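Data availability excerpt. The first of two example chains:
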Amino acid sequence: MTIADRIWHHCRLATLSPRRAGLGIVEDGVIAARDGIIVYAGSRADAPSGLMAAESIDCDGRWITPGLIDCHTHLVYGGTRAEEFELRLAGAGYEEIARRGGGIVSTVKATRAAGEDDLVSSAQRRLDTLLAEGVTTIEIKSGYGLELATERRQLRAVRSLAQTNPVTVRTTFLGAHALPPERTGHSADYIAEVCEMIPLLAAEGLVDAVDAFCETIAFSVEETAQVFSCARRHNLPVKLHADQLSNLGGAALAARSGALSADHLEYADEDGVAAMARAGTVAVVLPGAFYFLRERQAPPIELMRRHGVPIALATDSNPGSSPLTSLLLTMNMGATLFRLTVEECLAAVTREAARALGLLNETGSLDAGKRCDLAIWNIERPAELVYRMGFNPLHARVWRGQT
């Protein structure tokens, strides 16, 4: 006899289990959970005899997927960049916007001026929108402080969101996001400061991973490698904003560094993609930024397929290049702009997104032993989750076995 807290039955499952083909579809499905952990997910016919629970939920034929995972966001920041957006629409270029105080400098200024409560309050509204679409796990980066006090305040705000919301939150320290205005022309000095911040913030329990922006407008391969070396000394996994605007070899650097993921990747070449495949580094593609910045070069999806690189999708929610708070719309963009299949899109916001956060053993698919994170949908077929735009068919969201 198997005893559970809750059983969901009369449902169709897209398990995304690596042990099943494709979406891992089960037409007449059952999910049973105890203490927030799945004890059975599969067909009713194969369920253990004597499966019992204190609560049994009839899903009336609805579809259940793993809870969605947004594995790349910058959700905590001060201010907005709406004025900058308006200026760009009116024809203003990068230099003119910068002279007016726009760009990342404006977000850094607003974030430095914001108190922790303000950062939590503004981020909460963005988080609410994602949770309402079935998100049960999210990664949130710092990177708009570019100084110890504000980076700490951002990360503390992220931890606060995790304590007050039914969602699993991973924090990523992105001190190497941009050169702060007071360090113009002194990137080496600033990278040294970032490396001093890492052990301090890690000792306070604020950091789950370390990220950096390796790009001509940010930091070099050598500077990024220095940050990664420091992260590894403190037993922190790394991630990388790589090859978004040019090919600096960021994908290959991520692979050499054993990074969980390399993100963006519009200009990654075959050598970099092949290196990622060998290292098991996940490609996180971000169609929101591609769309918002009106980029022309898409990530090399076919190369990723050919070499067997796992592909994840994320909102990249941030004020400057992807003010997006819909993972459902992100899937549609991934299909439309990057030509991902329905199966690839759904895997990209569940199983592969979990892989990109180092959480594949805990969540991302409907398998016994994993957290009972579910999204229950009013749909006729899984393709609807990718096909529709501006439509939210979520019926219920379950986090660790609780609605």
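And the second chain:
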Amino acid sequence: MTRLEGKVVFITGIARGQGRSHAVRMAQEGARIIGMDICDQIPTVFYPMATREDLAETERLVKEAGAEIVTTVGDVRKREDIERALDLGIEQFGRLDTVIANAGIMPVIGPGDQPQAWHDAVDVMLTGVWQVLDVTVPRLVQQGTGGSIIITSSAAGLTSMGLNTFAGQAGYTASKHGVVGLMRLYSKQLAKDSIRVNTVHPTGVNTPMVANAEYGEFVNTHPEVANDEAYKNPMPVELIEAVDVSNAMVFLASDEARYITGITLPVDAGYNNR
């Protein structure tokens, strides 16, 4: 039997990158997947965001792994979108076991209205996470069978990353720290219901959020705010792969981690141990 056999997992930001990787790995372990993604461009985000075609590819890969999947296009900044995605998934699968609040953006450089970049970062990665919890937790409590909630934070949620204080960078860092507070609050409140809540903190991951021409050019042309030493991992790897994070997610979602709650789990090649 696979590690997540019979479990239903709800993942935000599923169309590509880490979200897609989490969906495929959990499908390989026997889970059924509920997913949502904005599939649209937020103006302050400097790299091209995921598309409906990306979402369709995630669906294909999950099915290829032998699992069922239900997806919707939706924005975690809109509570009604989260409710609609969850309702459609539960209508199909009948239950919910794991929530992965993964949707994220990195509006840390231009172009765009930079003060707005602060608001977009916080709205997606802090308020959006809270809204995901606010929608999903009552369902998990009502079921009475426990569950696992995993929030994607960052190495930047345990320490500062980068040397600039641009609005988007500040919003990103504040949000990734902020979800740790949410995790600690919810993990204490939900322990009596056997619902575990944890955060995962990756270093730089080889996804389109980081591995894109625009960010590469920024790093090359702004050494004063993108010093290579500020991002360097102690272990000899520049960027980890999305599956490295997914493997940690699978563990936290599985019964192997049934008594693990309230932790900040780094998957960071030693970044926070420098």
